[in-house]
Amino acid sequence: MSTTPHTVRTTDYHTAGEPFRIVDEDLPPIPGDTVAERRATALGPGGSGTDPRPGPLDDLRRLLSREPRGHAGMYGGFVVPPDDDGAHFGVLFWHKDGYSTACGHGTMALGAWAVDTGRVPAPDDGDVSVRIDVPSGRVTAAVHRADGRTTGVTFRNVPSRIVARDVKVTTTLGTVDVDLAHSGALYVSVAAREFGLDVSLPALPELVRLGREISAALPAHDVYGVILYEELPDTPEGLRQRNVTVFADGQIDRSPCGSGTSARLVLLGDDGRLAVGDTLRHESVVGTVFTGRLLAEGITEVGGTTFRTGTHAFVLDPHDELGAGFLL
């Protein structure tokens, strides 16, 4: 056994409060010709998005997402080659439980990282598009620049579609109707008021519990996240809602959820509350904001701010009895 500590270098961002840890070196081999195939490699034979099989890559995911180097709300991405020359790079999204197929806030962070590090050349003023292959397809991050710095990012998602409406789900607080939409991953939407709740920090433990209940009640649908939303007074620019998205095994999105915002946009369009070109001010449980815009044929754009929080060289000492760490 080696006595040399293993070092992993990362660059960390937050997008509207939600962390994103980027790893573009120190990666073990990840066989596959496409990002989707590499995700299948990461899951391993018989593995799933929330229950991957052990292996060198998953050892790294656990090391970076668990305490003392991470936490139960950690999110990140392994930078991998793109599917073809049409994209700048690819990414495998990961969280404390496994690997997701989509991540809007991560796409925004990656766009900023690619420009901030010079991987994708950008002007001091204006916009530049960063094309990224993700497991659900190709997405684009439009990085906005002014006076030599990144001021925001707007990502264009893969096409979103409605899967089902008014699906009855029984919870400990009664039976409710929920809506399902796919926007790179499958999201369930339900108004918090259906449970007599608002979207607030005091209500968060109950909202998380309900999110886990709803997801477990729909095993045939492979639900990634449950969006519990609250209607807020409209702004002069249009609709306004607040949400908390509970994904994977009870993980809380601190941001308004990028790909989840896409799901909300197509549902609101189907309701006749948004027309093509209209916007939604989407707020998180911590008060941060994404602006979503509905385009034609299920295309959506979601914009917000993202900031670098640090660069790290994480070490795993072979004598550390905690190993990859723990989750609370």
**Total DSSP E strands:** 18
Listing every helix as H and every strand as E from the N terminus to the C terminus, the arrangement reads: EEHHEEEHEEEEEEHEEEHEEEE
Percent range of helical residues? 10-25%
Task: Characterize the main sheet.
Answer: 18 strands, mixed
Beta-strand content: 35-45%
Poorly predicted runs of 5 or more residues: none
Average residue pLDDT: 96
Termini gap: 29 Å
Please give the count of helices: 5
* Class of secondary structure makeup: alpha+beta
- Cα-atom radius of gyration: 19 Å
Mass-distribution shape: globular
Please, could you describe this protein's structure?
There is one protein chain. It is globular, with a radius of gyration of 19 Å. It has an 18-stranded mixed β-sheet that branches. 45% of the residues are buried. Helices cover 18% and strands 40% of the residues. The protein starts with 5 loop residues before the first strand and ends in a 12-residue tail after the last strand. β6 (126-134) and β7 form a beta hairpin. It has 328 residues and is of the alpha+beta class.
Question: Which helices and strands occur, and which strands form pairs?
Answer:
Blueprint: E1 6-15, E2 18-23, H1 35-43, H2 56-65, E3 75-80, E4 89-95, E5 99-100, H3 104-116, E6 126-134, E7 137-146, E8 149-156, E9 161-171, E10 174-182, E11 186-191, H4 204-216, E12 225-231, E13 238-247, E14 251-252, H5 258-270, E15 279-283, E16 289-294, E17 300-304, E18 306-316
Parallel strand pairs: 2-3, 4-6, 11-12, 13-15
Antiparallel strand pairs: 1-2, 1-18, 3-4, 4-5, 6-7, 7-8, 8-17, 9-10, 10-11, 12-13, 13-14, 15-16, 16-17
